[in-house]
Design a protein that fits this description.
heterodimer, A: 133 residues, mainly alpha, two-stranded antiparallel sheet, 2 strands, 50% helix, B: 92 residues, 3 helices
């Protein structure tokens, strides 16, 4: 099956006869030689953004006064957003594919952890509200 | 300011707006990360043929430049003199 003839954003079967589809756009072609191509550029930038979020996460945690902490949190947030933007663009170009988990498997895990909920020490819908940022 | 304005029992609820040595080390590290990231994104944008990718990379380059300025401002603007704690002015 030629994925390039499929409409934008379509589901493609992972393999013939498989019930589980692959979530993927038709791949944008890039030159396959030794040169650094467009896909390599985005991959490199994504790796950089991921690396930066690690660094800024530590910085935010270790910052002394509140103003500095707030500024670093803002940078951390925006760096995550930049990584998302690159990831989304790569997905749009068809350079990322996702495989959905079987719904039966998700249901199984849901039931398991729903069972564990009885171990939690507080009633559900506790009083604690997370701070708004 | 702290000693003059308050009794000896006064406790700071939070660290004052003073850069610690650790803050300073992290800031200089982060500044070099942002400088490299901004230059890299700009360079990668120049290497790309796809206009959409070029545009995205240029935007990221600008974002890192903005972050660089924020961090540089922290290095410049934080009070070194405790007597001026609370000063809100910005030197551009």
């Amino acid at each position: 099956m030629n994925s390039h003839n499929r409409p934008y954003g379509s589901y493609q079967p992972r393999f013939q006869g498989s019930a589980s589809p692959t979530i993927k756009n038709p791949s944008t072609q890039v030159q396959q030689g030794t040169q650094f191509n467009d896909r390599d550029c985005l991959n490199d930038m994504l790796a950089t953004e991921k690396w930066l979020t690690d660094g800024f996460n530590v910085f935010a945690r270790e910052a002394s006064h509140q103003t500095l902490h707030n500024e670093v949190m803002r940078i951390l947030n925006e760096t995550h957003q930049a990584a998302r933007d690159v990831f989304n663009l790569m997905f749009e170009k068809g350079w990322y594919s996702l495989h959905p988990e079987q719904p039966s498997q998700v249901a199984k895990e849901y039931q398991k952890f729903q069972g564990y909920e009885s171990q939690l020490p507080h009633q559900s819908g506790g009083m604690y509200q997370p701070r708004q940022f | 300011m702290y000693r003059e304005g308050y009794t000896q029992q006064y406790r700071m609820g939070q660290p004052p707006r003073v850069l610690s040595t650790k803050d300073c080390n992290y800031l200089t590290d982060a500044l070099s990360w942002e400088l490299l990231a901004s230059k890299k994104a700009h360079f990668l944008a120049s290497q790309c043929s796809d206009q959409q990718i070029k545009h995205q990379l240029e935007q990221i380059s600008q974002l890192h430049q903005t972050h660089y300025d924020i961090l540089l401002n922290q290095l410049n603007n934080t009070e070194h003199d405790h007597d001026h704690f609370g000063y809100q002015g910005y030197r551009q």
